[in-house]
Amino acid sequence: MLRKAIVTLAVSSLVLVAAACNTVKGLGRDVESVGQAGDKAINH
What is the CA radius of gyration of the chain? Predict the structure, then answer.
């Protein structure tokens, strides 16, 4: 019983960490694209 709870908790934690990493990567891409758009607007 305890082993099943620990495994469930570990798997849940891995899923949350993976989701958080994808969110941070997506946010980084968004910020980068906004910066590139601003750079293009300034230089043209």
Answer: 19
How far is it, in rounded angstroms, from Cα 8 to Cα 19? 17
- 1-44 tens-digit pLDDT: 888 888 898 888 888 877 777 787 787 888 888 888 877 878 86
- pTM reported for the whole predicted model: 0.51
State the DSSP code for 44. Answer: -
Burial grade of 36 (CB within 10 A; 0-12, 13-18, 19 or more): exposed
Q: What residue type is assigned to position 24 of the chain? A: V
